[in-house]
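Ticket #120: bound-state structure for L-tyrosinamide.
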Amino acid sequence: MATKTPVTPPVPLVQTPDRDDGGSVVLERRTQKVQPPQMYQVVMLNDDYTPMEFVVVVIQEFFGKDLEAATQIMLKIHLDGKGVCGVYSRDVAATKVDQVLDAAAKAGHPLQCISEPVEF
Ligand code: TYC
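RESOLUTION: The complex was predicted; output attached.
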């Protein structure tokens, strides 16, 4: 069996060698800050024409919600004008938007949705 090259773990601290008066080495520790990736929420918009049943099916199919949750989200959109269907990485959110717009266009409904960065 082939042996694997050992993986070197990432170095968590930056160490900057410096010298003090006596010639000894001083190591300065700096914490490495890694930000979590920006997440995107897929927001569905209300309109006066798309049937409620169609919206519920779309939310179930593309956002993995059960009937109860999908109905709650649809009603929130209907009443407030918009609502969040899910939160994803940028590419996944863009794919969800494409899937919804494609399904709506094929069914002849004006349903719209967008993705936007999640603010924290
Ligand atoms: N307002 C639509 C109606 O009364 C239903 C609807 C809900 C449409 C949510 C779009 O994103 C939407 N038939």
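RESOLUTION NOTES: The pocket of L-tyrosinamide is lined by residues 44-48, 50-52, 55, 74, 77-78, 111 (CB under 6 Å).
TICKET STATUS: resolved
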